[in-house]
Write a structure and sequence with these properties.
- This is Germination protein.
- It is a lipid-anchor.
- It is found in: Membrane.
- Keywords: Germination, Lipoprotein, Membrane, Palmitate, Signal.
- The chain is of the alpha/beta class.
- The chain has 2 domains: 206 residues, no CATH class; 163 residues, 2-Layer Sandwich (GMP Synthetase, Chain A, domain 3).
- The strands form 3 sheets. An 8-stranded mixed β-sheet has the order 4-3-2-6-7-8-9-10.
- Strand 9 and strand 10 form a beta hairpin.
- Helix 4 crosses helix 6, helix 7 crosses helix 8 and helix 9 packs across helix 10.
- The protein starts with a helix and ends with a helix.
């Protein structure tokens, strides 16, 4: 290689080495990690006089490792804390919290936001606006709503997980509640602010009082809140209807359906998986309608019936009952969203994407059309693939041998 070619290659090699070094520097700002307090959860509501009540949940580094300062006794010194303030708006409340802390608050690890009833009923645009203007805020943070006071969540004993955010994120990852994020609310806002959000419920639980007598509450999924125009409606979905909402939104991996046997009326429980749902707009002769089509596979979990699963005709009868039961469940969910005048499953977006001209012709009266006029067909097809290790109920077979 000539001396001239070496001279030409040297700047390129030097630039490549410099770029490699910039990737291993580790620090991207002048603020050190040990000067920050990372917010994992936000609790927010309005007081009776209209003020903002804001709490932030932050882990405490000096209690994170067992055996260190305060870390040897989780009950006496939990590895996290809540700090709360009241103010006229979210920004002022956040500033008041920051003033009292020795570390700078960071939204880089915020995973959940829990919203109280008063705030939800008046609208959560202020929350979405605040989160949207924080560069470090995760748009994937999940939103929950509770009809209780938000500070009741602080009374929940953490037995299986160390942090509240871990419990709430697990609800989503195990598909027991809706995966509704800040991003979802932000997108829904541009189409009228209609969406579903998971509900949290709290109650007394004497069986956990031995774990921590001061924290004898339990927390669970209580269904779903229906938002219309960015505000929570007075109509909600209960736990059973929540399953239908998960089914329609394709957020459900499996479900258990209990039906009555077509032969003797005894219970048959089936588990369904492979659930797939599509929402399709149809424009025909100037009329707009929708079709919700869902498919799933099922197998028998338990049976108290004398039904003979070796008979193909019996299998078809069971499948029809499963289809009808699921269709009724989905219809009930759709009807509730229509009562609340909430296009919770964003059918308007499907119509806009596929038939923009049809959408432009009806968008000014979409709410009323969706609530009272639009035909919505629901078609469910469940195939019973497995009937278990036996064809008849073991209980029935035992009774016959006596």
């Amino acid at each position: 290689m000539s001396f001239l070619n070496r001279q030409r290659r040297f700047p390129a090699i030097a630039l490549l080495i410099l770029l490699l070094f910039t990737g291993v520097g580790g620090c991207w700002s002048s603020m050190e990690l040990n000067t920050r307090a990372f917010i994992q959860s936000i609790l927010i509501d309005r007081t009776e006089d209209g003020q903002i009540q804001l709490y932030v949940g932050v882990p405490l580094p000096n209690r994170m490792v067992p055996g260190q300062a305060g870390g040897s006794s989780p009950q006496a010194a939990e590895p996290f804390s809540y700090v709360g303030k009241k103010a006229e708006n979210i920004s002022q409340a956040f500033r008041l919290i920051q003033v009292d802390l020795s570390r700078s608050l960071s939204f880089g690890q915020t995973r959940v936001i829990v919203i109280g009833r008063r705030m939800a009923e008046q609208g959560i645009d202020e929350i979405i606006e605040f989160a949207n203007r924080q560069p470090a805020f995760r748009l994937s943070a999940n939103l929950y709503v509770t009809t209780n006071e938000v500070d009741e969540i602080m009374k929940i004993p953490l037995v299986f997980e160390r942090f509240l955010s871990d419990i709430l994120k697990r609800y989503v990852s195990t598909h027991v509640t809706l995966d509704t994020t800040v991003k979802d609310f932000k997108l829904a806002k541009y189409k009228g602010g209609d969406i579903l959000a998971p509900l949290l419920v709290f109650g007394k639980a004497s069986e956990v009082s031995m774990e921590n007598p001061k924290k004898n509450m339990w927390m669970g999924s209580g269904g779903a809140a229906i938002f219309s125009g960015g505000k929570m409606s007075g109509i909600t979905l209960n736990r059973k209807e929540l399953q239908g909402a998960l089914w329609i939104s394709s957020q459900m991996e499996s479900s258990i359906i209990t039906i009555n046997s077509p032969t003797d009326g005894e219970e048959i429980s089936c588990t369904t998986d492979g659930i797939s749902t599509t929402i399709k707009p149809i424009v025909k002769n100037g009329q707009i309608s929708f079709k919700i089509k869902s498919k799933a596979k099922a197998h028998v979990l338990s049976s108290m019936s004398d039904i003979d699963f070796k008979d193909p005709e019996v299998i078809l009868q069971v499948e029809k009952i499963l289809d009808k039961d699921t269709e009724n469940r989905l219809r009930l969910v759709i009807d509730k969203t229509r009562q609340a005048r909430s296009d919770s499953f964003l059918m308007s977006q499907y119509l806009d994407w596929r038939y923009p001209k049809a959408w432009n012709s009806i968008k000014d009266r979409w709410k009323s059309y969706y609530a009272a006029e639009m035909p919505i067909e629901i078609d469910v097809s469940i195939r019973l693939n497995r009937t278990g290790g036996v064809y008849r109920s073991i209980k029935r077979e035992t009774e016959k041998t006596r």
